[in-house]
Amino acid sequence: MHELGILSAVVKTVEQIAADEQLTQIDKIVLQVGELSGVVPSYVKDCYPAAVYKTSLADTELELEVVPGIVRCKECGTEFNAVQHDLKCPNCGSADLDALSGREFMIKEIHAC
Hints:
The chain is of the alpha+beta class.
């Protein structure tokens, strides 16, 4: 489970942004997690308390926005959600796909009071 390591990097980044912007308290962090990013949203939620334990973000809320894994079939051009169709085109059955969205993992918002 690499999500804890990823969240540790997020915590460091948010703490650095807070210091640079002279933010005294962070209330909420919003992360975008793509379905094709290799990061499991439920694991991120589960790991978050451990990642922020004994940090300046210990009392912050985490909000996750899951970005659908939309792909385009290189064979027929059909666009579809790759996860819902087990990475195979529902039109022609090809697995030769281009990712259009869903590979994201980013800090979208930092809410401070």
